Amino acid sequence: MEPTLPGPDPQWRPSAVVFDCDGVLMDTESAWARVQKQVAAGYGVDIDARTEADLMGLCAQDIAAFITGRAGEVARERGTSAPGQGEVLARLVDTEAEVVGAVIEALPGAVETVRTVARHVPVAVASNSTSAILDRKMHGVGIADLLRTWVSAEDVPRGKPAPDIYQEAVRRLGVDPADALAVEDSPAGSTAARTAGLWVLGAPLGHTEPMATHFLVESLADPAVGRLLRGWGFER
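That's the Putative phosphatase sequence above. Prediction below.
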């Protein structure tokens, strides 16, 4: 398991770190996938494993657009009325609040890593979650007080894979993107961070989808994380 892109100069160390949320800090990604399938099924749309992988890391607005398009095809075949994207988005958000809100739990190594990094440099979270859900997640796993800020898909014009969320995160942290590290688990997130100019630490947690990274670990529980942090002078 090796990174796919050349890393920075060996003397480089991050002046800020921006973590993705789902799949990096907490185990809510599978719950979000269930939300998508549940809402899609209500409109007669099936999300298979291939489609689920394609949708991984996208924001609710993009998921709603996908489901709306497929639901329109189903409606035409059935001779029924098609849902609007606003209706689908509202159902996604409401269902997410019910399902994801009940399974907020930090992944192994997540809180410890955030706490260690926050002792040395400013830390943020950049997530495609909605604002209300992201607030619940940050407080639910007990890291809100460790963060300088967190940015949701509702805080910017476009969610990942567009760079807007990471651009806003580094703006709030007051650092140059080239001095910041993003921690991501999905191709969409990696694309967003790299386009914004950040270096990327991949933590795919078993995902096999190709993802461009400058550093790579299995997850934040990987012993390699500790070695990276010590190399940057971030002692636990």
